Amino acid sequence: MRIRIDVEMAYQIAKADPVLLALEVAVAEGQTILDSALDITDASLQRVSGQAEVGQWVWAMVPGTRLDLRYGATVEITRPAVTLDVLAASPAHSLPSTVLTYLRPSRYCQSDLFTTFAQRQFGHLEGGAKTTAILDWVRQEIEYRPGSSHGGTTAMDTFVSRQGVCRDYTHLVCTLARAAGLPARYASVYGADVDPQDFHAVAQVWLNDAWHLVDATGMSVAEGMAVVACGRDAGDVAFMETSHWADFIHQSVVVTRL
Q1: What one-character-per-residue DSSP string does 137-186 give?
Q2: With a threshold of 0.70, does the pTM exceed it?
Q3: How many domains does the chain have?
Q4: Phi first, then psi: what are they for 197, rounded to 5°?
Q5: Does 25 share its domain with 143?
Q6: d(Cα 165, Cα 154) in Å, to the nearest integer?
Q7: Phi then psi for 206, rounded to 5 degrees?
Q8: What is the pLDDT of residues 179-210, one digit of tens each?
Q9: Are residues 196 and 114 in the same domain?
Q10: Are residue 55 and residue 176 in the same domain, yes or no?
Q11: Structural domain of residue 15, as residue ranges?
Q12: Close Cβ partners of 44 (under 8 Å, ≥ 6 residues apart)
């Protein structure tokens, strides 16, 4: 699948406040960047490696008080569809150190609070079958409701309220997977079928010695999304970070199939 990504952002920022951006599609297996351009008015740019060695972040040094940004990319997705149920899990003692960390709790994914629930709900299953059951449970139990959560909402909050958006679905999937013994991490992506269109969040689960993309919202599939960044939770891969408060002016994300 080939997709086109067009992003526009405008924010009022504190004067000369460096802005950290995670919005460029990553150079990664299963996706090829055919063309890409990032244009930020009057800014000097500095790139650094992203979290989990996935993609790159961009420091934008803007001398004034307004961030005006355009990003466009055409991406060929070659990632094949995978049947999760046939994939095996790996015992914790065999995991690479870079994967082992995604079994542990994080700020928004308090997996240590869900071990009993995960064992009762999913303990009879293994590997990919367990992952599928977790996805099905989240999809059935959580109502997708824009505006129902905020930047501080955790997986426990979502579990209690039974509502949220893609960020919350992903935190809950990662939390339940980790509690059930499956390494899982948060991924920011672009997907053509996301509605409403925006920066999107999905999970990656470690099965058969590889990361596999899964979306509990049902709005995207692994073979149709472009990965931007990965981390323990949303705190690791925010699309924009500033030291001081930034005021929203305009933002649009448009992803189309070609």
Answers
A1: HHHHH-EE-TTS--TT--HHHHHHH-EE-HHHHHHHHHHHHHHTT--EEE
A2: yes
A3: 2
A4: -65, 135
A5: no
A6: 12
A7: -85, 110
A8: 999 999 999 999 999 999 999 999 999 999 99
A9: yes
A10: no
A11: 2-78+239-257
A12: 60, 61
